[in-house]
Design brief:
Distance between the termini of chain B: 33 Å
CATH class of the largest domain in chain A: Mainly Alpha
Oligomer: heterodimer
Order of helices and strands of chain A: HHHHHHHHHHHH
Distance between the termini of chain A: 43 Å
CATH superfamily of the largest domain in chain A: MetI-like
CATH superfamily of the largest domain in chain B: MetI-like
CATH topology of the largest domain in chain B: MetI-like fold
Number of domains of chain B: 2
Shape of chain A: flat
Number of helices of chain A: 12
Number of strands of chain A: 0
Helix content of chain B: over 70%
CATH architecture of the largest domain in chain B: Orthogonal Bundle
Shape of chain B: flat
Number of domains of chain A: 2
Number of helices of chain B: 18
Strand content of chain B: under 5%
CATH class of the largest domain in chain B: Mainly Alpha
Chain lengths: 281, 429
């Protein structure tokens, strides 16, 4: 390689690094801004310094959130909803997927088709109806009504997801267990579920993260101040009437940090699972 | 044993064949009980509910509000009852099929001792699938049918909001009104529909190619710090989108936003830029911010697909003397596009329904000429308009008519989604 070529390569890689740095800056800019806002004294966005942390550092917003607002309550509510939704989805979807993957029965084809078609319609298309139904069954202003809505919305897609995974598990495994006298429940619980662990973990995580960001259904179903979720509570800090951005930033930071750590740790797995999913389809 | 006799018996009453000629007491009794319960409910519940579904109640202005006919409860109850009837019809069909199957088994293998009801055996599929079927029927299908039905009623403020007033069927009036009957609404619908499609197209394309370019650069560059950049670029994917959209909204605020104040203090601009309050600039801004949020997903996807490509291919190309740019253009790019193309389509449908990106960033703003009447603002897409119509204007009938439209727009995508599944390709469906 001649010296000119080497120089060319160096310039090219310099340009690439410069480009990456610019993009990284654009990506980090709002994140650094939230981080600095969460620790900046004062409330309004108009006196937020344009250089991050330009006005000193304070913990007052975190203290305010934890002691003067219902933030801990919102967090707890959302956690309960997320855990219940996640566990419910895992149980219902894995049972349904097992049946779809291993049994032949009347209406199997039509049911599978229905699941596939239903998954494309967002559940808030039936928003008004869900409001009336929740009222009708007496679960208005209750976290469980919300869990039921999320659970039902999760099932069509996730049953298909798990079913496709189970189809790749050799049937000889369950047949061997059946010869040994195991019933369906035993086979499902002790043979199929352990092998399907990767997809179940994926499913558990995705259905756990969903409720943290949803806004429409909690807004409709929950009313009383002690039954709010995080998305509703955080949104209430920055309505048109008041702009309490620093408290919002502090509250968002508490939610976002676990998510960011989690994604940073699992990015390798995410890359392969997303790639794998694309290839399989 | 005669097949025709079994068929006739099981058709006459659910479970009759099981009880009599097939000697399957438990199954037969269960089937029969279901039908008895259903028949018992007809006069008291099912028939009146269906009548109410048709009439939707009558106005009773002299009664106190609580005692008046509530049309919406009647509508939802009526649809639920219809769903129950559907369930019963399906069960009836299943019982007949099961009777025929058992009689065939008896013909082939002779009488076998009935095992009764075994939760882990023959009854397992039914029990295991019951939660799925019930949840989907009552919390997904019934709501969808309900909102389709509301599109054909006059459920709206001021005159038709239960419980004070009743709601009536109005046929296709709402659609006529939206498609040409009323200039303001028709204009708003055209504007919003056009922007919805443009938005979905632009946001999908920008995120897809943005993500792919970043993936190509990251995997192609030989710097040791590429993993650091990758971790940074994943961050927008990790932050809940509600949070990032609301943060951007504040940063881009015209008067107080940090973006404008920074630009002004550096001296790049002299007056604040109306990022979110100029109708055209706001549209551009939403697409750009959505790119910020959405490119990491496609970057990860492309990286994943790239690692899945066998390295033999690259090896062979390099031996043949291909440069790295050539390898990218002739090998990597076509393979990646081929494998991720279906996801472009799915992402397009997801963006048509991307409520959060619009609602939290712009709230649909800025206000345009017809906004006070229609509640559709400059950057509103169909789903956020539906939300405004429902929550702010309480024009449920138009909201539902729009939902029906989304149905129709998404239907081809549902078919596409269906045809690319493995089950369809392998002939299972």
């Amino acid at each position: 390689m001649s010296r000119a070529e080497k120089l060319g390569l160096k310039i090219a890689s310099g340009i690439v690094i410069a480009f990456l740095c610019i993009v990284a800056l654009a990506v980090l800019y709002p994140l650094v801004y939230v981080l600095s806002s969460a620790f900046t004294p004062g409330n309004s966005i108009s006196d937020m310094p344009i250089t991050p942390f330009g006005k000193g550092v304070t913990l007052e917003h975190f203290i305010h959130l934890l002691s003067d607002t219902n933030y801990p309550l919102w967090f707890g509510n959302t956690l309960v909803i997320a855990i219940a939704t996640s566990l419910g989805t895992l149980l219902v979807a894995s049972l349904g997927a097992y049946v779809f993957s291993r049994f032949k029965f009347t209406f199997k084809k039509s049911m599978m088709m229905a699941l596939l078609i239903l998954q494309i319609f967002p559940s808030f298309v039936g928003m008004v109806a869900i409001y009336v139904i929740i009222n009708r069954i007496g679960l208005f202003d209750s976290l469980w009504g919300l869990v039921l809505v999320y659970l039902a919305g999760n099932i069509p897609y996730n049953t298909w997801l798990v079913k496709s995974y189970l189809d790749n598990i050799p049937r000889s495994l369950d047949e061997a267990a059946r010869i040994d006298g195991a019933g369906n429940v035993r086979i499902w619980a002790t043979i199929i579920m352990p092998i399907a662990k990767p997809i179940l973990i994926f499913l558990g995580i995705t259905s756990f993260t969903g409720p943290w960001m949803d806004f429409i259904f909690p807004k409709m179903v929950l009313r009383s101040p002690e039954q709010q979720t995080l998305a509703l509570g955080l949104f209430s800090f920055i309505t048109d009437k008041k702009n309490d951005f620093t408290n919002f930033a502090a509250g968002s930071l508490i939610v976002a940090v676990p998510f960011i750590i989690f994604f940073a740790v699992t990015q390798k797995m995410l890359v392969t699972s997303l790639g794998g999913a694309a290839v399989k389809e | 044993m005669k097949r025709s006799k079994v068929l006739a018996l099981s058709c006459v009453f659910m479970g009759l064949a099981h009880l009599t000629v097939l000697r399957q007491r438990v199954k037969g009794i269960l089937f029969a009980l279901v039908e008895i319960a259903f028949i018992a409910l007809i006069p008291g519940v099912i028939a009146p509910k269906i009548v109410q579904l048709v009439t939707l109640g009558s106005p009773q202005p002299d009664l106190p509000v609580k005692l008046r006919d509530n049309s919406m409860f009647m509508l939802i109850d009526g649809i639920t009852v219809l769903a129950v009837c559907l369930l019963l019809a399906a069960l009836y069909y299943i019982s007949i099929k099961s009777a025929l199957l058992i009689s065939r088994e008896i013909e082939a293998n002779g009488w076998q001792k009935s095992k009764g009801l075994d939760l882990s055996g023959t009854a397992f599929p039914v029990v295991a699938l019951a939660p799925t079927v019930l949840l989907i029927l009552f919390f997904v299908v019934v709501p969808l049918v309900f909102s389709a039905c509301v599109a054909f009623t006059n459920y709206s403020t001021p005159g038709n909001i239960p419980p004070a007033n009743t709601v009536d069927w109005v046929g296709l009036d709402n659609f006529v009104h939206l498609f040409g009957g009323d200039a303001t609404w028709t204009g708003a619908l055209g504007r919003v529909a056009l922007w919805t499609v443009t938005w979905a197209f632009l946001s999908t394309i920008t995120c897809y190619f943005g993500g792919m370019i970043m993936a190509a650069i990251l995997s192609g560059s030989k710097t040791k710090i590429a993993p650091v950049f990758r971790t940074i670029f994943i961050l927008p994917y990790a932050v809940p989108s509600v949070v990032s959209m609301l943060v951007w909204k504040n940063m881009l605020n015209g008067a107080f936003g940090v973006v404008n104040r920074t630009l002004m203090s550096i001296g790049l601009v002299s007056t604040p830029i109306a990022w979110l309050s100029d109708p055209w600039l706001a549209k551009f801004t939403t697409v750009m911010i959505n790119l910020w949020c959405g490119f990491p997903y496609f970057m990860l996807l492309t990286l994943g697909t790239m690692t899945a490509i066998s390295s033999d291919i690259f090896e062979a190309a390099r031996i043949d003397g291909a440069g790295s740019l050539q390898i990218f253009r002739r090998i990597t790019l076509p393979l990646v596009i081929y494998q991720t193309a279906p996801l472009i389509v799915m992402s397009f449908t997801a963006n048509i329904n991307n409520f959060g990106a619009i609602f939290f960033l712009t709230g649909g703003n800025p206000v345009v000429a017809d906004s006070t009447v229609t509640s559709a603002k400059g950057t509103d897409i169909l789903v956020t308009w539906i939300y405004n119509l429902t929550i702010n204007l309480q024009k449920y009938q138009y909201a539902s008519a729009l939902a029906v439209m989304i149905f129709i727009v998404l239907a081809p995508f549902a078919v596409f989604n269906f045809r690319r599944t493995k089950s369809y390709k392998e002939g299972e469906l």
